[in-house]
Amino acid sequence: MFIKDYISKDFPCFSLSDSIESARNTLEDFGYSHVFIKKSHHFYGALAKDFLYEEDGGTLKDLEHQIERFAILEDNNIMDSIRLFYTFNSNVIPVINKNEKYLGYITCEDIFQDLSRYPLFSESGAILTVETPARKYSMTEIANIVEGNNSKFYGGFISFMSDEVIHVTIKIGNENLASIDATFERYDYRIVEKYYSDERTDLFKDRFGFFQKFIEI
To answer: What InterPro entries does the record point to (predicted)?
Structure first.
């Protein structure tokens, strides 16, 4: 799950002296949200698509004040990329090495396709969000409650956190759901949200919804 295993290299990194038109044409070919800029042979930043249409001509130097500084290191984990996609409203992220040399890029679609093969996303089942006091949060206990009711625990994540409470969103099997609900209540968990479905036609929606929740963390 390292970034270096997902790098594509066919998207160029422009110089400030390159024309806005050439960058615009490249974006239209690839369909990405940003172009990447280098300066003095080092990665400099990214420029959002919308800014390329604010000027009729000129070079990328004219838009230098709009450049955003974000990238990911090649030895990072793919989970590290999710916040960048969300924060910069981007569908593509530049990949650099420790010397800030541009190596290529990863896309949101690449990451989504990889995550979607894991049971947390690929298996149909129930989605629950439970609330627990922050002082007694235990993912182990949550998993034990599910498995103690003879159901499968596919995984989960913290979807909200404050000093007082924590919300944990989990994906579980469809077995013994009423019993699981009752056990959570008995252990002083509050069920904030639940979605039950065993229809395969709902699988993609279910999986994409989970991915969106990850991005929003």
So the answer is: CBS_dom (IPR000644), CBS_dom_sf (IPR046342)
Strand partners for 77: 2
The secondary structure element, H or E, covering residue 206 is helix 203-216
The better pLDDT of the pair 199, 171 is held by 171
Query: pLDDT at position 198, please?
Result: 44
Same domain, 130 and 58: no
27: which residues sit within 8 A by CB, 6+ positions away?
35, 49, 52
Q: Are residues 86 and 134 in the same domain?
A: no
Percent above pLDDT 90 for the chain: 71
CA contacts within 13 A on the Cβ side of 160: 11
Domain that holds residue 167: 119-200
Residue 55 CA to its chain's centroid (Å): 32
- Asked whether residue 159 is domain-assigned, the answer is yes
Three-state DSSP class for residue 197: coil
Please report the pLDDT score of residue 162 as a whole number.
96
Q: Give per-residue pLDDT as tens, 200-216.
A: 444 444 455 555 555 44
- Based on the domain organization, do 138 and 153 belong to the same domain? yes
Is there a single domain that holds both residue 110 and residue 126? no
d(CA 217, CA 214): 5
Give 112-118's long-range contacts (Cβ < 8 A, gap of 24+): 112/208, 112/211, 114/1, 114/6, 114/78, 115/78, 115/211, 115/214, 116/207, 116/211, 118/155
Q: Which one is predicted more confidently, 154 or 122?
A: 154
